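Quick one:
INPUT:
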């Protein structure tokens, strides 16, 4: 009688088994996590953070890895905020940092331009109507693994929490974040 209750309290059930790990800060995740997820992707990499610039500064050989992934048939998408958008300007005021939101977006755009035009690489800006929803939640997908950062108040991305999820079906939490990012992508415009 005691064991079933104890086991239920200790074993993940259907609703929370998608949560692999949580971190109080995105910067608290192991530095190798990002590179491992990029390397492990075989179908799709979808980076729908507002700036995505940190991939180019913290994942070793990221541009070369993207080239290899794309050449092997992996679809790679970047959803960015508009560097000239009103929400971007508002977020810069809120964050009040020297490395502004628009600068971080431009770093990503510059790096993507250096990659050159590649079949399998797509970049869009979120629509002006969706920018507020985009800037407040970053969703990074690597096949069935998803990293989610809900941005808190005046904090920059690396100071906000991070969830590492793995998809288990079409109705769980991971699927909801997947659908959120896809909706923003669908209404986005080419960068």
């Amino acid at each position: 009688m005691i064991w079933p209750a104890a086991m239920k309290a200790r074993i993940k059930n259907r609703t929370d088994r998608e949560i692999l790990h949580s971190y109080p800060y995105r910067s608290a995740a192991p530095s190798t996590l990002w590179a491992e997820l990029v390397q492990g992707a075989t179908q799709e990499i979808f980076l729908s953070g507002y700036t995505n610039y940190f991939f180019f500064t913290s994942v070793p050989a990221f541009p070369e890895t993207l080239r290899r992934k794309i050449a092997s048939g992996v679809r790679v998408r970047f959803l960015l905020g508009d560097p000239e958008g009103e929400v971007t300007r508002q977020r810069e005021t809120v964050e009040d940092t020297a490395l502004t939101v628009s600068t971080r977006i431009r770093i990503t755009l510059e790096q993507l331009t250096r990659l050159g035009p590649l079949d399998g690489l797509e970049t869009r800006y979120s629509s002006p109507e969706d920018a507020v929803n985009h800037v407040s939640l970053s969703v990074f997908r690597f096949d069935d693994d998803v990293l989610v950062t809900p941005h808190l108040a005046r904090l920059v991305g690396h100071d906000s929490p991070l969830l590492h999820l793995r998809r288990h079906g079409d109705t769980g939490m991971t699927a909801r974040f997947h659908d959120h990012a896809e909706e923003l992508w669908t209404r986005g415009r080419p960068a």
